[in-house]
């Protein structure tokens, strides 16, 4: 007979399937919510900025490609120092992305907004 395993959340005995880790759906949900929560105010604030930047870029670029003035980007509240990744083309052009929405500088006053399709597929 196999030994009883404790629930990862509350420590009570887990009954049922051999690979079961939690005694109830509530314990599973509580455990995963704790695991996936932002651990500190710094992380939470940065994640909120990234989500806001993504929303701004999505609202300014509904068709996937668009030229826009730097002043309009800044007025919208985009914080340009916060992005999820950077892509540099072979010609040296830098694209900064906030998840699937990105931008690159065309000149001092103009940016080009893009949307990466490979994130969606």
Top keywords for this entry?
31% helix, alpha+beta, 121 residues, single chain, elongated, two-stranded antiparallel ribbon, 7 strands, five-stranded antiparallel sheet
Structure description:
This protein has a domain at 41-115. 31% of the residues lie in helices and 24% in strands. It is built from 3 helices and 7 strands, in the order ββααβαββββ. The strands form 2 sheets. It has a 5-stranded antiparallel beta sheet. Strands 1-2 form a two-stranded antiparallel ribbon. Strand 4 and strand 5 (94-98) form a beta hairpin. The model has no long low-confidence stretch (mean pLDDT 90).
Which SSEs are present, and which pair or pack?
Layout: E1 5-6, E2 13-14, H1 25-36, H2 41-60, E3 65-69, H3 70-75, E4 85-88, E5 94-98, E6 101-105, E7 110-115
């Amino acid at each position: 007979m196999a030994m009883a395993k404790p629930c990862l959340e509350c420590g009570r005995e887990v009954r049922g399937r051999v690979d079961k880790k939690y005694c109830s759906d509530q314990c599973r949900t509580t455990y995963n919510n704790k695991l996936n929560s932002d651990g500190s105010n710094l992380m939470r604030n940065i994640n909120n900025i990234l989500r806001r930047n993504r929303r701004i870029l999505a609202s300014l670029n509904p068709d996937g490609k668009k030229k826009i003035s730097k002043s309009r980007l800044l007025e919208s509240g985009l914080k340009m120092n916060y992005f999820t990744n950077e892509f540099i083309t072979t010609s040296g052009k830098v694209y900064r992305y906030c998840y699937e929405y990105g931008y690159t500088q065309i000149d001092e006053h103009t940016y080009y907004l893009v949307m990466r399709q490979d994130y969606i597929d």
